[in-house]
């Protein structure tokens, strides 16, 4: 399949992210362009809640059940909205200017097209897969959600023997796969492109409109900057791969915009207070079920706004010279302490054990600090244009003393990245443990915090230049008559040239590097860590040899576990870290000697293992102990070779026990 042939499936994935949420937006009367910009976060929220609710009433997870659930929830939301509006009516809404709507649509289309090309180039083909460790689980988990009819976090946790796993990405990808009928790898790639090219830009535009206001230049600047970050979305489809983080971070800007609006610190239209906070609550399951670590990012990114808002309320109470003021200060202090305690408990709850991840600092402290301000984290090229605008924006915020909480959000993001990437120090465990101490995950969060200051800086620079041009134009026009039509034409030419120049400056070189870096993670060669071309070919025809119900053994880290994602045939271990019991250990250690040891056949019968894949010792983890029984099967008398692709990809039938 070519990318041109895959375009309809990308659009279908976009519809899965937008149509349900747009219906919900209309039900709760989200106004104007925001109804579209918030649609993805509402769609994922609905999927997150319904994926948990449908198993309780014994309904399978399908596009149809999801659609019916969306209709039911939207009707309920409409009723709640009507009830609340009677007591707390929304303010009068002023429709957006046509120029803002046109610029937003054009900007979103342009930014989306750029990101789609970037991601499509990195993915190579629609069928390509990331040759990385985590991809074994993610692809198989999508198949599991489809076949089990259950996409809840609890079911995905049970899939590999843990209590729960963030499942929103898998739920949405499974809907795309079921609605389109394409293979799991294609569904994964088109869903990820929809997340990067559609979900991410609309959320960013909503956040910018809340931070800066609905200005034409701010909208244009945001849509130029969004596809020019090397840290997101490409880093999350390159490192890991971290598909759940890809979705959760793409939703984060919209959730932040809703929180700022509910707090009353944002610009633009704001519904009544109860509705504003209910919309925030709706966004929480979307971010949390996509990945809980990003919910923690939402809390700490919004925290500066809460602090500055609280300071504005408490500062007038000083000096505390009356009983009423003393009471108010005590209440405010109690609320602050209680909030910090709750945040600390949540922060600790979502942190994995210290031994769950071993990532340490990867660069020097000065380098980490420099990267925060240059927009090129972890050795990536500096985003010079964005960095200049961002620094100008930060200075404007500091000098004007207005919206200092935006600067606070940037500082929080920078400090977290600094501790993860540049400093092995005791607070590092507490501050960055939520993200497994992984600098890559925190680097991907930096663009969210950088975008607002960068757009503020770009808007300020534009205003300064525009004033200068206006003065020069006035001087020139006093000496010669220029018609309005000519002036408009000249202005259009200058603006278009400026936008094209900025696009070239922000894309060329910087994004080429990021795309090329991700490209290698999806390249399949005879030495690939996960799947070689021969192994992929064998997996694609596996269902012609292996009947449904038969279980396949193999070393999962060599790519044999992906037999489940590619063919739907069960495997002994669907993930490299699957929690397993004694019988699995026996099969892994002794399958090729099943003709010599009867107890191996006992385990084979219990697990219904009838086939084995041997992809050699090359793997994404290196040689793993305990898998000698499923390696070098050509010497085994308990096996019969039934299919082979190339010299190393082989499918065997277990003959000794059946």
Structure write-up:
With about 650 residues, this protein is mainly alpha-helical. Helix content is about 65%, strand content about 5%. It is built from 25 helices and five strands. It has helices at about 5-25, 35, 40-55, 65-85, 100-125, 135-150, 155-160, 170-180, 185-210, 215-225, 245-265, 275-290, 290-315, 325-350, 365-375, 385-400, 405-420, 425-430, 440-480, 485-505, 510-520, 535-540, 565, 580-590, 600-605; strands at about 550-555, 570, 610-615, 640-645, 650-655. Strands 2-1-3-5-4 form a five-stranded mixed beta sheet. Helix 3 (about 40-55) crosses helix 12 (about 275-290) and helix 17 (about 405-420) packs across helix 19. It is globular and about 90 Å long.
What's the SSE blueprint?
Layout: H1 3-27, H2 34-37, H3 39-56, H4 63-87, H5 98-123, H6 135-148, H7 153-160, H8 168-180, H9 184-211, H10 216-225, H11 243-263, H12 273-290, H13 292-314, H14 323-349, H15 365-374, H16 384-400, H17 404-422, H18 427-432, H19 439-479, H20 484-507, H21 510-521, H22 533-540, E1 551-553, H23 563-567, E2 570-571, H24 582-590, H25 598-607, E3 609-614, E4 639-645, E5 649-654
Parallel strand pairs: 1-2, 1-3
Antiparallel strand pairs: 3-5, 4-5
Helix pairs in contact: 1-3, 1-4, 1-8, 1-9, 3-4, 3-8, 3-12, 5-9, 5-10, 5-21, 6-8, 8-9, 9-10, 9-11, 9-19, 10-19, 11-12, 11-13, 11-19, 12-13, 13-14, 13-17, 15-17, 16-19, 17-19, 24-25
Structure described in brief:
With 658 residues, the protein is mostly helical. It is built from 25 helices and 5 strands.
């Amino acid at each position: 399949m070519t990318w041109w042939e895959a375009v309809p499936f990308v659009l279908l994935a976009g519809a899965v992210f937008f149509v349900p949420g747009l219906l919900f937006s209309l039900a709760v009367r989200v106004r104007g362009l925001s109804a579209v910009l918030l649609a993805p976060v509402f769609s994922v929220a609905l999927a997150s809640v319904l994926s948990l609710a449908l198993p309780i009433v014994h309904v399978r997870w399908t596009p149809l059940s999801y659609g019916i659930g969306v209709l039911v929830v939207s009707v309920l939301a409409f009723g709640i909205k009507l009830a609340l509006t009677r007591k707390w009516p929304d303010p009068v809404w002023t429709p957006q200017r046509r120029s803002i709507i046109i610029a937003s649509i054009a900007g979103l289309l342009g930014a989306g097209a750029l990101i789609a090309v970037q991601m499509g180039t990195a993915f190579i083909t629609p069928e390509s897969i990331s040759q990385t460790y985590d991809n074994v689980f993610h692809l198989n988990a999508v198949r599991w959600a489809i076949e089990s009819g259950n996409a809840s976090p609890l079911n995905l946790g049970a899939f590999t023997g843990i209590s729960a796993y963030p499942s929103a990405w898998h739920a949405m990808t499974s809907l795309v796969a079921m609605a389109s009928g394409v293979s799991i790898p294609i569904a994964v790639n088109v869903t990820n492109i929809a997340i990067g090219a559609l979900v991410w830009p609309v959320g960013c535009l909503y956040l910018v409109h809340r931070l800066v206001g609905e200005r034409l230049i701010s909208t244009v600047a945001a849509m130029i900057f969004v596809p020019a970050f090397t840290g997101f979305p490409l880093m999350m489809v390159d490192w890991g791969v971290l598909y759940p983080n890809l979705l959760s971070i793409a939703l984060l800007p919209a959730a932040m915009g809703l929180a700022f609006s509910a707090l009353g610190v944002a610009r633009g239209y704001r519904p009544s207070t109860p509705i504003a906070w209910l919309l925030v609550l709706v966004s929480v399951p979307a971010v949390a079920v996509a990945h809980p670590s990003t919910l923690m990012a939402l809390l700490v990114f919004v925290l500066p706004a809460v602090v500055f808002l609280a300071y504005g309320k408490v500062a007038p109470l000083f000096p505390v010279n009356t009983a009423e003021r003393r009471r108010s200060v005590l209440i405010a202090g109690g609320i602050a302490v209680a909030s910090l305690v709750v945040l600390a408990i949540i922060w600790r709850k979502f942190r994995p054990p210290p031994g769950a991840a071993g990532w340490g600092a990867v660069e020097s402290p000065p380098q980490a600090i420099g990267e925060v301000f240059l927009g090129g984290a972890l050795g990536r090229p500096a985003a010079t244009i964005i960095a200049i605008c961002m620094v100008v924006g930060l200075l404007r915020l500091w000098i004007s003393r207005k919206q200092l909480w935006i600067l606070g959000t940037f500082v929080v993001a920078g400090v977290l990245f600094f501790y993860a990437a540049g400093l092995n120090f005791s607070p590092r465990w507490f501050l960055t443990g939520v993200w497994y101490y992984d600098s890559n995950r925190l680097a991907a969060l930096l663009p969210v915090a950088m975008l607002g200051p960068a757009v503020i800086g770009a808007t300020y620079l534009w205003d300064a230049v525009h004033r200068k041009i206006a003065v020069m134009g006035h001087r020139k026009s006093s000496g010669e008559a220029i018609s309005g039509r000519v002036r408009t034409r000249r202005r259009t030419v200058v603006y278009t040239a400026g936008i094209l120049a900025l696009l070239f400056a922000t894309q060329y070189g910087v994004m080429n590097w990021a795309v090329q870096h991700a490209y290698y993670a999806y390249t399949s060669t005879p030495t690939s860590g996960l799947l070689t071309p021969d192994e992929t070919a064998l997996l694609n025809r596996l269902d012609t040899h292996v009947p449904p119900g038969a279980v396949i053994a193999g070393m999962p880290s060599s790519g044999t576990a992906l037999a489940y994602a590619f063919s739907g045939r069960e495997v002994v271990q669907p993930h490299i870290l699957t929690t397993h019991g004694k019988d699995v250990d026996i099969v892994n250690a002794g399958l090729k000697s099943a003709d010599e040891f009867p107890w191996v056949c006992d385990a084979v019968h219990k697990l219904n293992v009838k086939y084995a894949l041997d992809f050699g010792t090359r793997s994404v983890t290196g040689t793993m102990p305990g898998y000698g029984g499923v390696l070098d099967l050509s010497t085994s008398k308990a096996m019969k070779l039934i299919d082979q692709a190339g010299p190393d990809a082989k499918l065997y039938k277990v003959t000794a026990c059946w």
